[in-house]
Design goal:
- The protein is built from five helices and two strands, in the order H-H-H-E-E-H-H.
- By secondary structure, it is mainly α.
- Strand 1 and strand 2 form a beta hairpin.
- Helix 2 crosses helix 3.
- The termini are close together.
Length: 72
């Protein structure tokens, strides 16, 4: 099982560097596309483009992220 810190790194490494789509991320993490979209949107990605990326501390402190992480 991956830690929430590893989840942060995984999303940035794979979705952030355009190595996968939202659907791929959802399948790999075994979560819904809506949850995968929330994670990427919260991090700062908009339609696959990088915006102002949140810090790891902001990411792991978010209640929505914690709720989705609990499903993984």
């Amino acid at each position: 099982m991956m830690t929430i810190h590893e989840l942060y790194d995984y999303i940035i490494e794979n979705y952030g560097k355009r190595k996968c789509w939202i659907s791929d991320l959802a399948t790999t993490l075994n979560i819904s596309r809506e949850d995968a979209n929330y994670l990427t949107f919260f991090l700062g990605y908009r339609r696959g483009k990088e915006g102002l990326i949140k810090s790891e501390i902001q990411f792991i402190s978010d209640a929505g992220v914690k709720a989705i992480y609990a499903k993984i």
